[in-house]
Amino acid sequence: MNIRTVLMTISLALSIVIGLALSRQNAGNAGASGSNPADGAKLVVGLSLDTLKEERWQGDRDRFVAECNKLGVDVKVEDANSDDSAQNKQVEALISLGVNVIVIVPHDGTAMAQAVEKANKAGIPVIAYDRLIKNCDLDLYLSFDNVRVGELQARYLLDHLPTPNKGRIVRIYGAPTDNNAKLFKEGQDNILKPLIDKGDITVVHEDWAENWKPENGKKITNAAITALNGKFDGILASNDGTAGGAVQSLIEAGLGGKILVTGQDAELAACQRIVAGTQTMTIYKPLKTLAAGAAEAAVTLAKHRPLIARQSVNNGRKDKGDVPAILFDVIAVDRDNMCKTVISDGFQKRDDVYSGIPEDKRPKCP
Ligand code: BGC
């Protein structure tokens, strides 16, 4: 799918979201008095983030706050620093403050159900942002197609192995507490399994990177290099942070640029590694679209106005069925399409991405 198709899909999804009737509006929330905005009072959105340590989430925060401000709404931001009990307390504090809607990026998609229940009781709508929260009553889940992220990563890796569709690979999964990490793995498995079953692809080392930390990506790669004497063809890293750790380990072992490494998020450092040749690809997720969609949905829910989502996702909740969801599309990026994706979309600047490359060797990026 090219960038234009992706953007068309996104704008279509957005136009469907906004202003239509929500078939499955959370009955507990509708009509609850706790969060009904007083006439003329400025609406306040609570944004609870797992962490602000990664470029990805700083970008989400900035874009989400900007989009909310454009809609005339204030945002109270909380950062839990990857601590479940802190995040639950922060959401409780947002409830006590009487915010009109809460948007949550959970550290642990199961642990956050507790705080969501409290918000439900207080009549405050809740949106799960990017990561699903399990076994609780959500008003909306807004994310990207995370299974597709994993499929694109694995497809790219297989296509670009020294012998396509054959070889020995290392797999670095994300945080086991993050539902997305499981979805990325599921997508990767969809593509890899037939070839693993045939014996053409061998997973020679695999592990989960706790809290998505780059140092854990590095540790996993160090262990693989030691155990296998560096004899593998590719690293299927689930995001750019863990890819960064893997690349560091490869460079230290004299293998930088010699082994394929995947990623996700189109972080600046990853884009720089891609054009330098030490990381092979990333997945571009247009965060502006997610943030704009979440801001529109948050304000609509805060006003108890009707809203529709054309997709739905099972989060294990009982009685109310699947959670209404909006899942945006993503695009695989390597050095060949860097200009016409992340740069032309204004996600990263050409001068930043190519800062390590002499001007006469940089593409023009029209
Ligand atoms: C997000 C990724 C991110 C990862 C680590 C996932 O839930 O979808 O974009 O790289 O968390 O923060």
Provide keyphrases for this structure:
binds beta-D-glucopyranose; globular; 366 residues; four-stranded parallel sheet; seven-stranded mixed sheet; 13 strands; single chain; alpha/beta
How are the elements arranged and paired?
Blueprint (H helix, E strand, L loop, with lengths): L2 H15 L26 E6 L5 H16 L3 E6 L4 H14 L3 E5 L7 H9 L4 E4 L10 E5 L1 H15 L6 E7 L5 H20 L2 E8 L5 H15 L5 E4 L2 H13 L7 E2 L6 H9 L5 E3 L2 H16 L8 E3 L9 E6 L2 E3 L5 H5 L6 H4 L13
Parallel strand pairs: 1-2, 1-3, 3-4, 4-5, 5-12, 6-7, 6-8, 8-9
Antiparallel strand pairs: 10-13, 11-12
Helix pairs in contact: 1-10, 2-10, 3-4, 5-6, 7-8
Bound molecules: beta-D-glucopyranose.
Beta-D-glucopyranose binds next to loops.
Note down, in words, how this protein is organized:
With 366 residues, the protein is α/β, with parallel strands linked by helices. Helix content is 41%, strand content 17%. It has a 7-stranded mixed beta sheet with strand order 2-1-3-4-5-12-11, sandwiched between helices. The chain has a 4-stranded parallel beta sheet with strand order 7-6-8-9. A two-stranded antiparallel sheet has the order 10-13. The longest helix has 20 residues. About 8% of the residues have low confidence. The site of beta-D-glucopyranose (BGC) has 11 residues, from loops. Beta-D-glucopyranose binds next to loops.
